[in-house]
Write a structure and sequence with these properties.
The chain is an alpha/beta fold. 26% of the residues lie in helices and 25% in strands. Helix 7 links the parallel strand 11 (228-233) and strand 12 (247-255). Helix 3 crosses helix 4 (169-180) and helix 6 (215-222) packs parallel to helix 7 (240-246).
């Protein structure tokens, strides 16, 4: 089979195509013909060497494909089933624990930049009905991250105000998921063009954070002075003070990204005086994923795909991500 591997010391020029023997499914495993993957910031950090991996690691944490073989004892799937992967294959249910958060494909173990994979049946769920492989490949990391932040750790519902930062994969899923339950969305970006696109996709209000540096106060103003119920926090320390300013008393912040750095000052007085809560969100469990896709009438998941690249152009796909010109998810077809 054809794979892409990452050679030491990492970097986009060290993504190399090679041939490897086709895997065979062991007991409890399914053999999946990978049809599509999608890029996440976590994958970018891996392939650029920010998260060290052994030489020869196969990257990419997301997968959609079809089952083409079964190992002994497999009961959840049949040959021909259309499936998608889990970001944390060892996190089946319950809360996060260390042992549940290891085994990430493309990082701790080989991932999905390959034509075939053999993994435990518990590392997959079925795809939502009616989804293409490309659409389904965008869900396991980005969509589930937004879902858990807003509906598991947070309590977004009809009438809630949600502040969404940026226009990357998680942010676009946050927009569609929030709107699907009747919430109102304020979305920020530094690009007026991207803001007009999110407005067309359903955002109720848009804010350019470059031209409105005190965008937290502006968001609060748009809610009638009360503040937002939920913030999908992508920036981290550089944006958290404004997010705190935007929140209502008793609001919730889903800490999903740290694009502005890994540490910084936090206005703690404003945080505790507003009785806020903040949850660190690293994707979710198999149970969360099943909940997200299990009721198509409740959550109207709408993937926004920026562009698509064949597997052999994986480095170019990451360069597209690196440029920060993308809007939504970048897909890799295999």
């Amino acid at each position: 089979m054809k794979v892409i591997i990452l050679k030491k010391p990492g970097g986009l020029d060290h993504l190399i195509a090679e041939e490897r023997p086709d895997p065979a499914p062991g007991p409890g495993q399914v053999l999946v013909r990978v049809r599509a993957s999608s890029l996440n910031f976590h994958d970018y950090v891996v392939v650029t060497g920010g998260i060290p991996t052994p030489g020869g690691r196969i990257p990419l944490s997301d997968c959609a494909g079809e089952v083409v073989g079964l190992g002994d004892g497999v009961t959840d799937f049949a040959v021909g089933d259309r499936v998608m992967s889990l970001f944390f294959p060892n996190w089946q249910d319950g809360g996060p624990e260390l042992q549940k958060l290891i085994g990430v494909p493309g990082d701790h173990v080989d991932g999905f930049a390959a034509e075939l994979v053999a993994m435990p049946q518990t590392a997959f769920t079925k795809m939502p009905a009616g989804f293409s492989f490309e659409d389904a490949a965008t869900l396991p990391c980005a969509a589930l991250t937004a879902f858990r932040g807003m509906f598991v750790e947070g309590s977004v519902r009809a009438g809630s105000w949600v502040l969404v930062q940026g226009t990357g994969g998680v942010s676009m899923f946050a927009l569609s998921l929030a709107k699907s339950v009747g919430a109102k969305v304020i979305q920020t970006s530094s690009s007026d063009e991207k803001l007009q696109r999110v407005k067309a996709l359903g955002a109720d209000h848009i804010i350019n954070y470059k031209t409105t540096p005190n965008w937290g106060a502006k968001a609060r103003e748009l809610t009638g002075g009360i503040g937002v119920d939920e913030v999908v926090e992508i920036g981290g320390p550089g944006t958290l003070p404004q997010s705190i300013a935007a929140c209502r008393i008793g609001g919730h912040i889903s800490m999903i990204g740290v694009l502005t750095g890994i540490s910084g000052e936090v206005p703690t007085a404003a945080f505790f005086s507003s009785n806020l809560t903040m949850s660190g969100i690293t994707v979710g469990s198999r149970a969360h994923q099943l909940d997200m896709i299990g009721d198509p009438n409740r959550y109207n998941i709408k993937p926004v795909i920026d562009s698509s690249y064949p597997l052999e152009k994986l480095a170019d796909a990451f360069r597209r991500m690196e440029s920060q010109r993308h809007f939504g998810k970048i897909v890799v077809t295999i």
